[in-house]
Amino acid sequence: MPWYLITEKDIPAVVTKNINWLYPAQRIEENAELELQQIEFYAHHFAKSPNKAILAICKELDAAYDLPLGESLYEVRQLLAKRYFTFDIFKPTTKLKARDLQAADVGLIREVYLVSNQ
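^ thats the sequence. predicted structure below, dont judge the formating
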């Protein structure tokens, strides 16, 4: 089996920055049912404004739902970290548009959730 030694010099800076931004959010435990609701909620809003920046959509949602500034982005960050939404890791998270995110299959996630609770 061939093997390779990869260092931070071999990984593009944008990828390292994205991983460093996502990694802490991955460890935060949430309620699985709440996460499913969040996926559907954000997928709906992203589909309504595919050309808008994620940051702009999150700011609008914070204002519309009277949330603390940054709350929506925090939730989206968690969903990205847990791979409920995926994106091209070579694109800076600060420049992501709604069309850049692909939602996971919520039906499949619900099935896994239900099976794991039995």
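The CA atoms of residues 40 and 106 lie 8 Å apart.
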